[in-house]
Amino acid sequence: MITCPYCFVKVPPARIAFRCLGGSGRIKGCEPRKDDVLSTFTGVAQELPPVFSVRRPGRRAVCPACRRETAWRACPSCHSRLAAEYCANPGKIVALVGAKHAGKSTYIAVLIHELMNRVGEELDASLVPCDDRTIERYKTDFNRPLYGDHRLLSFTQSAKTAARDPLVYLFTRTGGGWRRRTASLTLVLFDTAGEDLREREMSELHLRYLNAADAVIFLLDPLELPGAQAALHGSARERGGILADDLMSDQMDVVVRVTELLRKRNSGRLAIPAAVALSKIDELRPSMERQSALHRTRDPLGALDLDDREAVDEQVRALLHQWQAGMIDRYLSQQYNDYALFGLSALGEVPEGQKVARSGIRPYRVEDPLLWLLYRFKMLDGIRR
Ligand SMILES: Nc1nc2c(ncn2[C@@H]2O[C@H](COP(=O)(O)OP(=O)(O)OP(=O)(O)O)[C@@H](O)[C@H]2O)c(=O)[nH]1
Ligand SMILES: [Mg+2]
Ligand SMILES: [Zn+2]
Ligand SMILES: [Zn+2]
User: Fold this and answer.
1) Beta-carbon neighbour count of residue 137 at 10 Å?
2) What atom in ligand 1 is closest to the CA of residue 347?
3) Tens digits of per-residue pLDDT, 115-140?
4) Which part of the chain is the Double-GTPase domain (predicted)?
5) Taking a C-beta distance cutoff of 8 angstroms, is the pair 58, 84 a contact?
6) What domain range includes position 35?
7) Centroid of ligand 1 to alpha carbon of 126 (angstroms)
8) Cβ of 333 below 6 Å from ligand 1
9) Which ligand is nearest to the CA of 41?
């Protein structure tokens, strides 16, 4: 079974569809025509050669209409293209969720950038976009505003008003040891708007997305945890609490709602790994730093440092309890077999108005949740020092 990374419908391999290549030059083939299924799904009119299904889908198939051979595989449900690498490497879908304004989009923007550069180098890994839409969308919606114009990202539009394409990347790493085994992971990141996760009537797409998730990352905004106020910079205290009166419940609400949905898949404690991260920890007061494992930089070991992991986990747990948000920790421990706590900052510095700080983007521990998940997926070693 593979999960379509666009519509998140589960597709048995025997039902993978193909799209005719159409004609090119002197080679005759089917004419492009309006694809209603894809147009409805993407919200943009799409003209392409037709999609067809075959009895035993392999890597290629012959179009029944024009007899031309094609290797363009498509999801039978939404007609999006399924990349060959994706079909070969059943993807791990990482769901990223958090309340409105928690920092999800900024986190995605910076995480991808880091995986392509610094962290990719450390792990001897490559991150390659799986389709053109991913390349386009990362560039226009994430990279250009943040890294090009140094502007903060605008809030994510609800899936109700704008089509939402997930970003799909193939993450490949060559492991250590004499065998140099190569392992791949398809990373499907779906940038949700905070309000979409909150409403009682969550959309079909979101339900399928969460249902298909192999791991979930929760982002919690410390500015919105009332008990955290004393630990924040003065300016952050003023900026916090702008969203609603009942903010703790807002941060918590998303955790509970998403957990309830995941719960429908099985009874007992959930087996799906959950990474729970405080975002924006650059907003914590410098006085926090002295005893803090959180403020120690992670050594680039190319492996998960288990001692460091435990220290950070403990510290974030202590912070949550100190901030009267211990309920979140208790709730997680009741619901999940496997959850871990993190603290990170995508920007690394408090933004100045609508711009990133003049010192630039200096992410801090953004990769930690992913390293932990890779370790959980057996794609990264854990070491003790
Ligand atoms: N100090 C600090 N602020 C951040 C950081 N990341 C995001 N922010 C702030 O949080 C705001 C919201 O960030 P987004 O990434 O748009 O949040 P979101 O979760 O995608 O929000 P929605 O799309 O509306 O659900 C930004 O405009 C920044 O002001 C960070 O690492 N540090
Ligand atoms: Mg957003
Ligand atoms: Zn054809
Ligand atoms: Zn699909």
Assistant:
1) 18
2) 31
3) 999 999 988 899 989 888 889 999 99
4) 93-288
5) no
6) 2-82
7) 27
8) no
9) 4
Question: Ligand 1 centroid to 48 CA: how many Å?
Answer: 38
Residue 159, exposed/middle/buried by CB under 10 A (0-12, 13-18, 19+)?
A: buried
Length of the chain: 385
pLDDT of 197-219, one tens digit each? 776 667 788 888 888 889 999 99
Q: Is the CB of 315 under 6 A from ligand 1?
A: no
Pocket flag, ligand 1, residue 97 (CB < 6 Å): no
Centre of ligand 4 from the C-alpha of residue 72, in Å: 14
Which of 40, 65, 82 delimits the end of a domain?
A: 82
Atom of ligand 1 nearest to the CA of 364: 31
At 33-90, the pLDDT tens digits run 999 999 998 888 999 999 999 999 989 999 999 999 999 999 999 999 998 878 887 6
Q: Are residues 53 and 202 in the same domain?
A: no
How confident is the model at residue 246, as a pLDDT? Answer: 47
Give phi and psi for 354, each to the nearest 5: -95, 5
Q: What is the residue-averaged pLDDT of the chain? A: 86
Same domain, 363 and 255: yes
The per-residue pLDDT for range 208-248, each reduced to its tens digit, is 888 888 999 999 998 888 777 777 776 666 665 554 444 44
Q: Clarify whether residues 59 and 109 are in a common domain.
A: no
